[in-house]
Amino acid sequence: MKRVIQMAWRNIWRNRKRTIITAASIFFALFFAIGMRSFQLGTYGHMIHQSIEAYTGYLQVQSPDYFDEPGLDNAFEYSAELVQNINSNPQVKIAVPRVESFALASIGAKTKGVLVNGIDVEKEAELSNPQRNLVRYRFSSHLMEKVYELDELSKDQIANLKIYGNASFSSLDKISLNCGITNKELLNKIGKLTAFEGNYLQSDDDGILVSDRLSKFMHLSIGDTLVLMGTGYQGSSAAGLFPVRGIIKIPSPELDNKLVYMALPRAQQFFDMENMLTTLAINIHDNGKMLEVQHELDQQLDNELYVVKNWEEFNPILKQTIEGDSAGGLVFIAILYVIVFFGIFGTVLMMIAERKREFGVLNAIGMRKRQLMYVVVIEMVFMGSLGAVMGMLAISPLLYLGNKYPIQMTGQTAKMYEDMGYEAVMPMASFDAYFWWQAIIVIIMVLLASYFPLKSIRKLKLMNALRA
Amino acid sequence: MKVIQIKDLHKTYSESEVEVHAVNGVTLDFAEGEFAAIVGPSGSGKTTLLNMIGGLDDPTSGDVKVGGTNMSDLKGEALTDFRLNNIGFVFQSYNLIPVLTAKENTEFVMRLQGKTTQECERRTIELLQAVGLGERINARPSKSSGGQQQRVAVARALASKPKFVLADEPTANLDSKSTETLLDIMEKLNKEENITFVFSTHDARVVKKARRVITIEDGKIISDVRKNGGE
């Protein structure tokens, strides 16, 4: 075996240029395939993190009818036993109670339908953490006139700031990233000029947090009072006056247009549904075990009162978006591999054609055809592995850096991302199964490409080969 | 003791609509330790005869028995294994494995036979020294002359301790000096190891060295002369 391996290794270097070209084609295919897939998976992971892990939760406990008819009448009772039961599952990281319903918001002449989200202020900090999105800076046009007068600002920076006219930010870091301003002193000056007051809710607060776009539409400021009217539990009338404590910037434009956060006790009081919830959002320790945990919780809970839904069920649009985009990416990778496959196939054909006589001699002196096939397969695996290993080694540092330090968009691109509801970052996925799959695909390709030559060795006519 | 027994051997090729009898009813025996040359003009059928003796080509009819085994009974891997263990080949154009050194080429067949490393090493060195290449065991074919390559080919042919060696025009590509050296080596090994050598050739120098000369024409044996006088 050692001799066969040695022979195969030396054979691939008989035509150095051809081996290098073939290995290089595999190298580039793998480099781009892994790089592209990593960006895709990283982006999907980020989308899931933004929408699911940091908002809806991976799992939700609901009343059995809530999924088909989401409304307060399909709420369920929030009891200590229920929470204890859910928390007894070791995979459950946190279970956050929520009351969600719609109401009509009004101030002055402005009226709009809003989504009221009653949250446990402390627990919610561990799931969606709305406080992190609290607007602390707002680029209102009258304030920005003063900002543009700052001497330290370059023309490019002013242009970038203008893109974000009337935008809101939750931190100076975000301003720095989006507007491309790295000078801390300058950032602090812009911060001072554009500072926006606002507070997070207290656990027994009777005020509300209003989403950024909604606040702009309703011309709301901190301290303003919003009138909310709607239908409460079992048809009761819900109405109240709610002072605005803070403005929050929600990444999703759709939600940013209509979200109102309220402390859970106040929401339950408003909707007249004491001690009741519409959903219990759950995050788990190992997201890969979502279906397993869903099944376990389903078993643990009384199915007449509760059902457990996973995010793919209550957010099918996100799932379909990811699946559709992923399929497109896979088709591109497949095309790339098909091209490389024919490159490998051509090399194999040439290798076999020019060595027909040698195969004849080897068979004549006593080497079985099967052993000849081993040599060819090992040669091909060597060639494939050479390109694959180099490709994987070359992409690895980029993958590591792209995962640890995601690419941050700035300026117009960042604005475009944010307008679409995505954070303006392009993270790469870390090393995972997809990484190793590319290598496996290359080996499979090499073996497939070897099929024809192996067949021709099996059918080798000794005299024809010796005369070749 | 008969090493090779050939009985009424025929080989017919169909070229277009014409049938060519490359070998036409050859009956022949080779005894252990013979040093025989099959001679004849080009197209006389000597290489075809050699190929059938070596199990490289199938006869149209007739039998070739090697050490009592009828070659026609062997197919596929069994035939390959039989060649490995019983027959050594020396080809006109050397046909060494280009990526292996002289030592590796020589021990290659022994590795296929599954012999131990020590056994392979010992016999390889012994054979390469016998063919005068003890100093060039690590040279690859591309770094060796035609004569040196053919000597490695002889060492390879003998490495498996075959019952006989078939050499198809072994000197055709060699100069006089290399031919002389190669023939001396083969004669010496023939005598020392008592291995039968059968050549196909039209080289007068080979014919001169051979102790038996079989002349073939149009696929038929027209003379079979033993140098000690017998026919």
Task: Give a concise summary.
The complex is a heterodimer of chains A (468) and B (231). Chain A is 55% helix and 17% strand. Chain A has 468 residues and is α+β, with helices and mostly antiparallel strands.
Question: What descriptive keywords fit this protein?
Answer:
heterodimer; A: 468 residues; alpha+beta; six-stranded mixed β-barrel; two-stranded antiparallel ribbon; elongated; B: 231 residues; alpha/beta; Rossmann fold; six-stranded mixed beta sheet; four-stranded antiparallel beta sheet; 36% helix; globular
Structural notes for this entry:
In chain A, helix 1 (2-12) packs across helix 16, helix 2 packs antiparallel against helix 14 and helix 16 (369-404) runs antiparallel to helix 18. Chain A has a domain at 2-50 and 318-467. Chain A is built from 19 helices and 15 strands. In chain A, the strands form four sheets. Chain A has a six-stranded mixed beta barrel with strand order 3-4-10-7-9-8. The longest helix of chain A is centred in the N-terminal third of the chain and has 41 residues, at 16-56. The mean pLDDT of chain A is 88. Chain A has helices spanning 2-12, 16-56, 80-87, 121-124, 141-148, 155-163, 172-179, 184-194, 212-217, 253-256, 264-270, 290-300, 311-314, 316-353, 356-364, 369-404, 411-419, 433-458, 462-467; strands at residues 59-62, 76-77, 92-107, 110-119, 137-138, 168-169, 208-211, 225-231, 237-248, 259-263, 276-277, 279-284, 307-310, 407-408, 425-426. The radius of gyration of chain A is 31 Å and the shape is elongated. Chain B has helices at 46-53, 76-86, 102-113, 117-130, 146-159, 176-193, 204-209, and strands spanning 2-15, 18-31, 35-39, 61-66, 69-70, 87-90, 164-168, 196-201, 212-217, 220-226. Chain B has a six-stranded mixed β-sheet, sandwiched between helices. The chains are: A alpha+beta (468), B alpha/beta (231). At the A-B interface, helix 1, helix 15, helix 16 and helix 19 of A face helix 2 and helix 3 of B.
